[in-house]
């Protein structure tokens, strides 16, 4: 049986085989404690559970593990997992002698952020100053431990003040099939404890923007299209909410969000131009904005995708088929055919084609922003696609919308209740971004920007 045992500490690596079965202690016989114990047993460790009532708590304990009183259990192992709620940590205070020099792994989580003044792991360290506390494994659930870690949750974070203690924990993590990433000293514990409580943090702002824009344009178009028709002509065209309105809100939000992806980069370039140096930090809001560009772009792609789907179903709509038949019948009845208008054909095909090309590049941008793809691209390739092709996508989609608007921009009948149609409003931001970008790529401005990015400073050091 001894040959199945594994060495706990990397410091013993010089010794060829562990002299005896390495023992790991687990305090806490809850779900997480038991799952940890089971995994440790499977990995070849001897496991001893510390319990207040060692004789009555053995029924649920994984087969092969021992149960002892806390003091005896602590003495028999170098490393102790503390899988107990923070409120019960004070039972450790009387064990200070037995815990001296031991590695205590705090695996706890909280129910909400800022629940306590200090991190659980720091609190644990203050209760047992003689032990070496390491925070870690708290992103793992009992469920994932029982089922074996999958690719996505193989990585665990640890932090602690003692390098040796962290090495001990890392070695055990490796034996459990996990890869532990050292995040630094115990002061980082609070951040690690917040990880499992975060809900898609980088998506929050982009999602809010998407919902806000969708709601604003939905009500704007509802008033302009549907309520206007009812108020002025008494016509009920509320059925249009489902497809026509949705097929306006989606592309409008998509185009605005796509320009929001490229606006911060353009603003940052102008800021560098204005300051004449790249060695000053961008304001926080600009930093935060730049960091969520990928999420903005992916959401924008989602809206563009919906627009394409809504567009594809236009021919099978009852309303559209009804109108087309009605027109054909009236042409026959009045025996009055219209001339084929080449300009209209050109215009229609052009804006559709630009939309399709724009959408094609849009999808390419989306695919290359996925980590599995972007990881195999060099930085130059990635920035070529995201910047050059990104601006081209914005240009194509903007041109698609301008051509769709065509000559309607000048006709006054389009401004119902003195308000412009949605597509005109949504053209403002992309047009501004494209104009600013055009300014940036004019040779003399481009030359200055390139020099600044290479480290040159206006009136400065080099
Ligand atoms: C409008 C087709 C891609 C932005 C339209 C319309 C059609 C169309 C038929 C007129 C809809 C209507 O009559 O109500 C397509 C096709 C695409 C495509 C076939 C690609 C396969 C895109 C993309 C964008 C975009 C990628 C960029 C975000 C717009 C905008 C409008 C529009 C803003 C005006 C919406 C409004 O009526 O207010 N498109 N489109 N389109 N499209 Fe596209």
Please give a structural write-up:
With 462 residues, this protein is α/β, with parallel strands linked by helices. The protein folds into 2 domains: 2-197, Rossmann fold, CATH 3.40.50.720; 201-453, no CATH class. It contains 17 helices and 8 strands. It has helices at 31-42, 70-75, 96-99, 120-127, 142-147, 163-175, 189-194, 204-233, 246-275, 284-291, 293-312, 318-334, 342-368, 371-374, 379-405, 422-440, 443-453, and strands spanning 23-27, 46-51, 66-69, 79-82, 103-106, 132-136, 155-160, 179-182. An 8-stranded mixed β-sheet has the order 3-2-1-4-5-6-7-8, sandwiched between helices. The longest helix has 30 residues, at 204-233. The protein is elongated. Bound molecules: protoporphyrin IX containing FE (HEM). Protoporphyrin IX containing FE (HEM) binds at residues 244, 247-248, 251-252, 254-255, 258, 304, 307-308, 311, 352, 355-356, 358-359, 362, 397, 400-401, 404, 422-423, 426.
Radius of gyration: 32 Å
Which ligands are bound?
protoporphyrin IX containing FE
The order of strands across the largest sheet is 3-2-1-4-5-6-7-8
What's the helical proportion of residues?
40-55%
What is the rounded distance between the termini?
69 Å
Shape: elongated
What's the number of structural domains?
2
Arithmetic mean pLDDT:
89
Give the total of beta strands.
8
**Class of secondary structure makeup:** alpha/beta
Largest sheet: 8 strands, mixed
């Amino acid at each position: 049986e001894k040959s199945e045992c594994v060495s706990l500490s990397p410091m013993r690596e010089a010794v060829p085989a562990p002299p005896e079965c390495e023992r790991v202690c687990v305090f806490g016989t809850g779900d997480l404690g038991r799952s940890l114990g089971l995994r440790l047993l499977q990995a070849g460790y001897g496991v001893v559970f510390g319990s207040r009532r060692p004789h009555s708590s053995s029924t649920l304990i994984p087969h092969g593990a021992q149960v002892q009183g806390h003091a005896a259990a602590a003495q028999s192992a170098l490393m102790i997992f503390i899988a107990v709620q923070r409120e019960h940590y004070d039972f450790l205070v009387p064990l200070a002698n037995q815990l001296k020099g031991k590695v205590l792994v705090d695996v706890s989580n909280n129910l909400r952020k800022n629940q306590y003044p200090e991190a659980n792991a720091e609190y644990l360290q203050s209760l047992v100053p003689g032990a070496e506390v390491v925070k870690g494994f708290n992103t793992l659930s009992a469920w994932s431990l029982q089922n074996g870690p999958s690719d996505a949750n193989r990585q665990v974070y640890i932090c602690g003040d003692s390098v040796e203690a962290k090495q001990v924990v890392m070695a055990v993590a490796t034996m459990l099939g996990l890869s532990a990433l050292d995040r630094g000293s115990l002061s980082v514990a609070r951040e690690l404890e917040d990880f499992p409580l975060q809900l898609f943090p980088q998506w929050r702002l982009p999602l809010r923007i998407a919902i806000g824009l969708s709601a604003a344009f939905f009500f704007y178009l509802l008033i302009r299209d549907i309520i206007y028709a009812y108020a002025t002509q008494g016509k009920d065209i509320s059925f249009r909410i489902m497809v026509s309105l949705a097929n306006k809100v989606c592309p409008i939000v998509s185009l605005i969000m796509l320009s929001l992806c490229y606006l911060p980069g353009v603003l940052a370039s102008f800021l560098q131009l204005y300051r004449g140096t790249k060695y000053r930090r961008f304001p926080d809001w600009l930093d935060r904005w730049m960091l969520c560009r990928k999420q903005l772009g992916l959401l924008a792609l989602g809206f563009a995708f919906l627009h394409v789907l809504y567009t594809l179903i236009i021919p099978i709509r009852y309303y559209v088929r009804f109108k087309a038949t009605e027109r054909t019948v009236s042409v026959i009845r009045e025996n009055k055919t219209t001339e084929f208008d080449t300009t209209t054909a050109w215009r229609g095909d052009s804006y559709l084609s630009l939309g399709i090309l724009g959408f094609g590049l849009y999808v390419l941008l989306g695919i290359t922003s996925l980590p599995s793809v972007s990881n195999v691209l060099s930085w130059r390739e990635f920035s070529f696609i995201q910047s050059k092709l990104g601006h081209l996508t914005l240009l194509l989609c903007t041109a698609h919308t301008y051509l769709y608007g065509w000559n309607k921009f000048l006709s006054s009948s389009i401004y119902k209740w003195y308000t412009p149609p949605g597509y005109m409003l949504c053209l403002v931001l992309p047009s501004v971004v494209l104009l600013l970008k055009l300014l940036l790529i004019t040779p003399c401005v481009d030359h200055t920007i390139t020099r600044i990015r290479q480290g040159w400073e206006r009136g400065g050091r080099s």
